Amino acid sequence: MTVRVGVIGTGAIGQDHIRRLECKLSGAKVTAVTDVNQDLARKVANTYAKQATVYANDRELIAARDVDAVLVASWGPAHEASVLAALEAGKRVFCEKPLATTADGCMRIVEAEMAHGKRLVQVGFMRRFDSGYLQLKQALEQELVGEPLMVRCIHRNVESAESYTTDMAITDTLIHEIDVLHWLLNDEYQHVRVLYPKKTKHALPHLQDPQLVLLETKKGVIIQAEIFVNCKYGYDIQCEIAGEEGVISLPDVPAVRLCSNGRKGTEVLQDWKKRFEAAYDVELQAFIDDGLKDEPASGPSAWDGYVAAVTADACVKAQESGREESIELPKKPAFYQHSAATPEQV
Ligand SMILES: NC(=O)C1=CN([C@@H]2O[C@H](COP(=O)(O)OP(=O)(O)OC[C@H]3O[C@@H](n4cnc5c(N)ncnc54)[C@H](O)[C@@H]3O)[C@@H](O)[C@H]2O)C=CC1
Ligand SMILES: O=C1[C@@H](O)[C@H](O)[C@@H](O)[C@H](O)[C@H]1O
Fold it and tell me: Where are the annotated segments for Disordered?
């Protein structure tokens, strides 16, 4: 059996996912694509999925008889409408982050999915499938460092586009830490503060960069997350967790060590594509496998998308107020209690 996938949005990550569905993963086939830029959609189909039909819009693609599952990789503000339409059609949907740009939008998706009665949505929080983060999770579960006390994270990008704004440091970038850290710590967020250090000369006038986000969990763990999207030297993701009995850190991505011209060192990756390539493969294979087995979606859920959105809203409020803001979430519905399975491969 094959899961026939329709892809909405054929930009950077849409193309990447189409390529992996067609060339790397098993049990899937891209049968449909669409993009508001129809020339791009045609070009991408022609390059990576010659058999795919190019549709004029998301609604036509979702309705297509040869589309079993939908992959949403359009711009964030377009996600909610596509996910809701896919749910209405009773089709599985993998949605890149953010699930929706507002907490209310995420809640509408949660409600639609619960009304449908089966989990169909997986959110593209790929770090939960990254071997390094899985090793951290395992170490915490085995209590190798005892109770976690403090976390230090770094999320650096080489440079940001002109369209990247100060709030996007939260909604577009920190959102990955927001998701992965509460999953790692098995804890909930309580408060947040955002500090603005001296601004880099490499950021455009409208952008505050870097930023320091201080999150406190209900158990009292303090997380210090640096977001620096014009760091210039590379794509750098770090995470260190200090516990009562020791410290664990995210492993470096293995790379050849080169000694040449009087220097010794390794290449620094330049973007998310290579850093999380294996994680994207595993998350999407999990989505396809759930479809092949006709089982409820088991990856990061619509509820996880909602938690991330509520937390991001509080972070943006803290950016604006300069004060500590609280993060309040309703109780997780029973429908989502047994979600977000951890893949076994570490
Ligand atoms: N999980 C991850 O690490 C990453 C996730 N993303 C997420 O993936 C999404 C796409 O990001 P990129 O590929 O970098 O952006 P992009 O700008 O390269 O591509 C987005 C594409 O969506 C199309 N589009 C916009 N609205 C549309 C609509 N209503 N219907 C159909 N097509 C539409 C655009 O024309 C564009 O071609 C974003 O939500 C982003 O946050 C992006 C990069 C990495
Ligand atoms: O999701 C991603 C991008 O959309 C975002 O713009 C980057 O800052 C992140 O590093 C990347 O993982």
Answer: 322-346
